[in-house]
Amino acid sequence: MPAPIRLRELIRTIRTARTQAEEREMIQKECAAIRSSFREEDNTYRCRNVAKLLYMHMLGYPAHFGQLECLKLIASQKFTDKRIGYLGAMLLLDERQDVHLLMTNCIKNDLNHSTQYVQGVALCTLGCMGSAEMCRDLAGEVEKLLKTSNSYLRKKAALCAVHVIRKVPELMEMFLPATKNLLNEKNHGVLHTSVVLLTEMCERSPDMLAHFRKLVPQLVRILKNLIMSGYSPEHDVSGISDPFLQVRILRLLRILGKGDDDSSEAMNDILAQVATNTETSKNVGNAILYETVLTIMDIKSESGLRVLAINILGRFLLNNDKNIRYVALTSLLKTVQTDHNAVQRHRSTIVDCLKDLDVSIKRRAMELSFALVNGNNVRGMMKELLHFLDMCDPEFKADCASGIFLAAEKYAPSKRWHIDTIMKVLTTAGSYVRDDSVPNLIQLITNSVEMHSYTVQRLYKAVLDDISQQPLVQVASWCMGEYGDLLVSGQCEEEEPIHVTEDEVLDVLEGVLVSNLSSPITRGYALTAIMKLSTRFSSVNRIKRVVSIYGSSIDVELQQRAVEYNALFKKYDHMRSALLERMPIMEKTTTNGPTEILHTNGEAEPSVRDSKHPPNIPQPSSQANDLLDLLGGNDVVPVIQTELPTKPASSGGELLDLLGDLSLSGVPAPAAPISVSQPTFLLDGISSQPLFNDVAGAIPPMTAYNKNGLKIDFTFERSNSNPNVSVITIHASNLTEVDMADFVFQAAVPKTFQLQLLSPSSNVVPGLNKGTVTQVIKVLNPQKQQLRMRIKLTYTHKGSSVQDLAEVNNFPTQSWQ
After folding, report:
1. Lower CB density within 10 Å: C or N end of the chain?
2. What is its main location (predicted)?
């Protein structure tokens, strides 16, 4: 068989391929030749073939068939074979494949080899892809090499120890004695790897962190020697002595000094020296300064040192390198809360970054600018940010507008300034203002009673100029509806009043209604505003005509509003002035996030259950008796089906009547009648306290039924009025494509329980999981026995009637105890 081509020739051949297909053909041909050579156990050229295979693997082609050949090379006595074999093992093997365990013994032998280079490649391989099992088996050899006098092996052993600790953290203490001595080494390579090992140990173990804090003076001394040492060609990078080691030491000092006063005190001086003596003209010096700043900010450093760190970041903002400017802005954003005054000194430089061409820098500068706003600089900062809002790209406008709204609300020096700022945002940001901003602005305007005339006049002028900005038009429409009488009366004291007639105001709102630029929501605002003006203006007949026109609108929302408003004019005209009177001052609640508005309309807030369950759906009259057959025994109680009440229920008496009047004729073993003297049942006392206890989160939900695309989930709550009552809410969902109609859920329990089944929210379960049908079951369990239930499901699906029974016995313990 001819000798295979060399790796260099293969590379040259592959590079001549003009298409991907041609390259694949060359690779496949060479892979076939390599496979043939492997089958023939060709020891002469195995190393060359594996090297070519690794090159093809790096190009993205499969090379798994060379894994065992790598193991054969590792077992070879020749260093050239071992080197390629270990390289192949690192590239082709990992701990997910059992093959890697076969080389554990070879690595152990090579770690004890007489040649340092063989020991070195074995350490590299173990440190790269060693599994937890391999690390446990070979940790002793690694620890032994950490104590050797050979610096070449010690640095490799230290890095290998890092990998061992990551895989098997409990072996950390094995390396503790050897690690202490590594910092006495003069070789920079060993020092570097020892600092990496110390960092790993401190990050993974609080005990190690406390133990190694005593090494802070030694680390400070090493760092000082690096700064003060003269030119060393072996370690010099752009005029700085071993910047990689300096960065690693600074990172370790940051970990050791965090939260510890003594350690922080010991490193304050050296950090000040590094910050003042490091050359900033090259990127190497900037890297060291950045690590120094991070260390100063993380430890308990002196205030002067923190100011020095922020000044370094301020100098970074003037750097021509965009990456350095971005890093500086990000770091300042993290420190602005703790060192606000120091960051404020660089406000002008930060604001200048808003004009940067790089979008990442602009976004960071915008976020930092908002963080710098306070009561003293709000006017100047808002001026700059409004200019930025006017000039910035569309992707910034929504965030910038929201930030200005929040800052203006928090730091506004006066009501008029606040209104003017918001008007500027609405006219500048246009439709980029977020939807939640409109109700927030309406709330602000409502609460600024003395500014109503000024605000409605400014908004009226703005809408005359431009009705394309939807948030602006929505706020303006609302204000004209609420305060149109103030606009017409010309009572503005803040600026010269304008003379506006009622017809001109209505013309503007009608123009919004017919404009192609108006969204459906904006039209809704305009129609409601026109309706409100019917109690403020004398042009009632014109308003009636406009409202009646939209009673046949193709927009359902607009049509519904118009029909309701028409009804107000006709049937309920005596109520119109009371319903459309001016909105009171809106209350607001402060949450962890932005201020939220509580929209109140005078109605009582519905309970959680009321919101889930619309009016009752009529059920089959025989349902109560049919349920008695579900369990097939004499220990069954009937289901109590609620009806629509004829009068408000002030107590549980009506429910007791319902239980007493239930006809149980034909029942094999009827339940004992419930007397009034027994403990109150289910709904008793609902008027005096909330119905449900807020412990739902403590009872896990469960899936009671999942078959033929129908899924029934149970969620649980406890009744406040009676702790023996469990409230179960069923959630029926449909995973099929077709709706399930005529859905009926029935349930029965043993005679030691009492059960009441309320009406469902619907009798149609929507397909494709687009909605759920909910229904409430109340179970009285006075003896706290384990809950059992049999359910019966009836529905129509794809034209055919479906009926199914199921038994539910796996209720959570918390639901019945």
Report:
1. N
2. membrane
